[in-house]
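Hi everyone,

Forwarding the result from last night's run.
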Amino acid sequence: MLNFLVLPLFAYLLGSIPWGLVFTRLFTSVDIRELGSKNIGATNVKRVAGSTWGMLTLIGDTLKGAVPVWLGLTITTSNTLSGQIYVSVVVMAAFLGHLFPIYTKFKNGGKGVATAGGCFAVISPFACVVAILVFIMFICWSDRVSVASLAASATLPVAIWKTTGSGVVTGCAAIITFFIFFRHTDNIKRLFSGTEPKIWNPK
Protein backbone atom coordinates (compact mmCIF):
# COMPACT_ATOMS: atom_id res chain seq x y z
CA MET A 1 0.00 0.00 0.00
CA LEU A 2 2.88 2.36 0.79
CA ASN A 3 4.29 1.79 -2.71
CA PHE A 4 0.93 2.64 -4.23
CA LEU A 5 0.86 5.93 -2.32
CA VAL A 6 4.51 6.87 -2.75
CA LEU A 7 4.95 6.22 -6.47
CA PRO A 8 2.61 8.97 -7.73
CA LEU A 9 4.42 11.44 -5.46
CA PHE A 10 7.77 10.19 -6.75
CA ALA A 11 6.47 10.52 -10.32
CA TYR A 12 5.48 14.12 -9.70
CA LEU A 13 8.80 15.03 -8.05
CA LEU A 14 10.78 13.35 -10.82
CA GLY A 15 8.59 14.93 -13.47
CA SER A 16 9.22 18.31 -11.89
CA ILE A 17 12.97 18.23 -12.59
CA PRO A 18 13.45 20.95 -15.24
CA TRP A 19 16.26 19.31 -17.19
CA GLY A 20 16.43 22.08 -19.77
CA LEU A 21 16.97 24.63 -17.03
CA VAL A 22 19.40 22.40 -15.14
CA PHE A 23 21.63 21.74 -18.16
CA THR A 24 21.69 25.32 -19.39
CA ARG A 25 22.33 26.79 -15.94
CA LEU A 26 25.12 24.33 -15.12
CA PHE A 27 26.90 24.11 -18.44
CA THR A 28 26.11 27.29 -20.39
CA SER A 29 25.84 30.99 -19.72
CA VAL A 30 22.24 31.35 -20.90
CA ASP A 31 19.01 31.55 -18.95
CA ILE A 32 16.60 29.49 -21.02
CA ARG A 33 13.66 31.23 -19.36
CA GLU A 34 14.68 34.56 -20.89
CA LEU A 35 15.61 33.57 -24.45
CA GLY A 36 13.83 32.21 -27.50
CA SER A 37 10.34 31.05 -26.63
CA LYS A 38 11.37 31.13 -22.93
CA ASN A 39 10.29 27.52 -22.62
CA ILE A 40 12.48 24.99 -20.79
CA GLY A 41 11.75 22.17 -23.25
CA ALA A 42 14.17 20.51 -25.66
CA THR A 43 13.18 22.56 -28.72
CA ASN A 44 13.99 25.90 -27.13
CA VAL A 45 17.13 24.50 -25.48
CA LYS A 46 18.35 23.34 -28.90
CA ARG A 47 17.52 26.68 -30.45
CA VAL A 48 19.23 28.72 -27.73
CA ALA A 49 21.99 26.50 -26.30
CA GLY A 50 22.72 24.02 -29.09
CA SER A 51 21.86 20.53 -30.26
CA THR A 52 23.81 18.68 -27.56
CA TRP A 53 21.91 20.25 -24.68
CA GLY A 54 18.66 20.01 -26.60
CA MET A 55 19.14 16.27 -27.07
CA LEU A 56 20.10 15.73 -23.43
CA THR A 57 17.02 17.67 -22.36
CA LEU A 58 14.87 15.51 -24.63
CA ILE A 59 16.31 12.34 -23.12
CA GLY A 60 15.91 13.61 -19.56
CA ASP A 61 12.32 14.74 -20.11
CA THR A 62 11.45 11.40 -21.74
CA LEU A 63 12.99 9.30 -18.97
CA LYS A 64 11.21 11.18 -16.20
CA GLY A 65 7.97 9.95 -17.73
CA ALA A 66 9.16 6.45 -18.57
CA VAL A 67 10.79 5.53 -15.26
CA PRO A 68 7.83 6.00 -12.88
CA VAL A 69 5.38 4.39 -15.31
CA TRP A 70 7.66 1.38 -15.67
CA LEU A 71 7.81 1.13 -11.88
CA GLY A 72 4.02 1.38 -11.77
CA LEU A 73 3.65 -1.51 -14.18
CA THR A 74 5.93 -3.65 -12.02
CA ILE A 75 3.76 -3.31 -8.91
CA THR A 76 0.32 -3.57 -10.46
CA THR A 77 -1.52 -5.59 -13.08
CA SER A 78 -2.22 -3.46 -16.13
CA ASN A 79 -4.97 -5.74 -17.45
CA THR A 80 -7.25 -4.96 -14.51
CA LEU A 81 -9.35 -1.84 -14.13
CA SER A 82 -7.66 -0.88 -10.86
CA GLY A 83 -4.25 -1.39 -12.44
CA GLN A 84 -5.14 0.80 -15.42
CA ILE A 85 -6.41 3.54 -13.12
CA TYR A 86 -3.28 3.38 -10.99
CA VAL A 87 -0.92 3.53 -13.97
CA SER A 88 -2.92 6.44 -15.37
CA VAL A 89 -2.55 8.28 -12.05
CA VAL A 90 1.22 7.76 -12.24
CA VAL A 91 1.24 9.03 -15.83
CA MET A 92 -0.69 12.17 -14.87
CA ALA A 93 1.57 12.79 -11.87
CA ALA A 94 4.74 12.70 -13.98
CA PHE A 95 3.15 14.76 -16.75
CA LEU A 96 1.77 17.44 -14.41
CA GLY A 97 5.12 17.59 -12.65
CA HIS A 98 6.67 18.59 -15.96
CA LEU A 99 3.98 21.19 -16.63
CA PHE A 100 3.91 22.58 -13.09
CA PRO A 101 7.29 21.82 -11.48
CA ILE A 102 7.44 22.28 -7.74
CA TYR A 103 11.15 23.18 -7.90
CA THR A 104 10.38 26.37 -9.84
CA LYS A 105 7.31 27.25 -7.77
CA PHE A 106 4.97 25.72 -10.37
CA LYS A 107 6.16 28.17 -13.03
CA ASN A 108 8.18 27.80 -16.24
CA GLY A 109 7.01 24.25 -16.91
CA GLY A 110 7.41 22.59 -20.28
CA LYS A 111 4.76 21.58 -22.78
CA GLY A 112 4.84 17.90 -21.91
CA VAL A 113 5.36 16.21 -25.27
CA ALA A 114 8.57 14.34 -24.42
CA THR A 115 7.39 13.37 -20.93
CA ALA A 116 4.08 12.09 -22.28
CA GLY A 117 5.99 10.17 -24.93
CA GLY A 118 8.11 8.51 -22.27
CA CYS A 119 5.03 7.54 -20.27
CA PHE A 120 3.14 5.96 -23.15
CA ALA A 121 6.22 4.34 -24.70
CA VAL A 122 6.26 2.07 -21.66
CA ILE A 123 2.51 1.39 -21.75
CA SER A 124 2.25 0.79 -25.50
CA PRO A 125 5.47 0.92 -27.52
CA PHE A 126 3.58 0.40 -30.79
CA ALA A 127 1.27 3.35 -30.13
CA CYS A 128 4.31 5.48 -29.38
CA VAL A 129 5.96 4.38 -32.63
CA VAL A 130 2.83 5.43 -34.53
CA ALA A 131 2.91 8.86 -32.83
CA ILE A 132 6.63 9.22 -33.60
CA LEU A 133 6.03 8.40 -37.26
CA VAL A 134 3.31 11.05 -37.38
CA PHE A 135 5.71 13.49 -35.70
CA ILE A 136 8.42 12.78 -38.28
CA MET A 137 6.00 13.10 -41.18
CA PHE A 138 4.67 16.46 -40.00
CA ILE A 139 8.06 17.90 -39.09
CA CYS A 140 9.33 17.03 -42.57
CA TRP A 141 6.25 18.66 -44.08
CA SER A 142 6.10 21.80 -41.93
CA ASP A 143 9.65 22.19 -40.56
CA ARG A 144 8.02 23.20 -37.27
CA VAL A 145 8.23 21.19 -34.05
CA SER A 146 4.95 22.63 -32.79
CA VAL A 147 3.00 21.31 -35.78
CA ALA A 148 4.58 17.88 -35.45
CA SER A 149 3.99 17.80 -31.69
CA LEU A 150 0.32 18.71 -32.03
CA ALA A 151 -0.23 16.15 -34.79
CA ALA A 152 1.48 13.39 -32.78
CA SER A 153 -0.45 14.33 -29.65
CA ALA A 154 -3.75 14.20 -31.51
CA THR A 155 -2.83 10.76 -32.83
CA LEU A 156 -1.88 9.36 -29.43
CA PRO A 157 -5.34 8.66 -27.91
CA VAL A 158 -6.46 6.85 -31.06
CA ALA A 159 -3.28 4.78 -31.15
CA ILE A 160 -3.58 3.96 -27.44
CA TRP A 161 -7.19 2.82 -27.89
CA LYS A 162 -6.31 0.65 -30.90
CA THR A 163 -3.37 -1.01 -29.12
CA THR A 164 -4.63 -1.34 -25.54
CA GLY A 165 -8.43 -1.28 -25.80
CA SER A 166 -8.44 0.45 -22.41
CA GLY A 167 -10.95 3.25 -21.98
CA VAL A 168 -9.14 4.42 -18.84
CA VAL A 169 -5.71 4.70 -20.45
CA THR A 170 -7.22 6.20 -23.60
CA GLY A 171 -9.01 8.78 -21.46
CA CYS A 172 -5.72 9.58 -19.76
CA ALA A 173 -4.09 10.06 -23.18
CA ALA A 174 -6.96 12.33 -24.26
CA ILE A 175 -6.58 14.50 -21.15
CA ILE A 176 -2.86 14.80 -21.81
CA THR A 177 -3.53 15.73 -25.43
CA PHE A 178 -5.83 18.51 -24.22
CA PHE A 179 -3.11 19.86 -21.92
CA ILE A 180 -0.52 19.71 -24.70
CA PHE A 181 -2.76 21.68 -27.05
CA PHE A 182 -3.45 24.19 -24.27
CA ARG A 183 0.28 24.64 -23.62
CA HIS A 184 0.78 25.24 -27.33
CA THR A 185 -1.72 28.12 -27.44
CA ASP A 186 0.96 30.69 -28.28
CA ASN A 187 2.43 28.41 -30.95
CA ILE A 188 -1.00 27.98 -32.53
CA LYS A 189 -1.47 31.75 -32.61
CA ARG A 190 1.94 32.17 -34.28
CA LEU A 191 1.10 29.45 -36.80
CA PHE A 192 -2.04 31.32 -37.85
CA SER A 193 -0.13 34.59 -38.06
CA GLY A 194 2.76 33.01 -39.97
CA THR A 195 5.37 33.90 -37.35
CA GLU A 196 6.08 30.46 -35.84
CA PRO A 197 9.85 29.79 -36.21
CA LYS A 198 11.09 26.82 -38.17
CA ILE A 199 13.37 24.25 -36.60
CA TRP A 200 16.12 24.33 -39.23
CA ASN A 201 15.76 27.94 -40.26
CA PRO A 202 14.43 29.81 -37.18
CA LYS A 203 14.67 33.20 -38.85
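The mean pLDDT is 91.

Cheers,
N.
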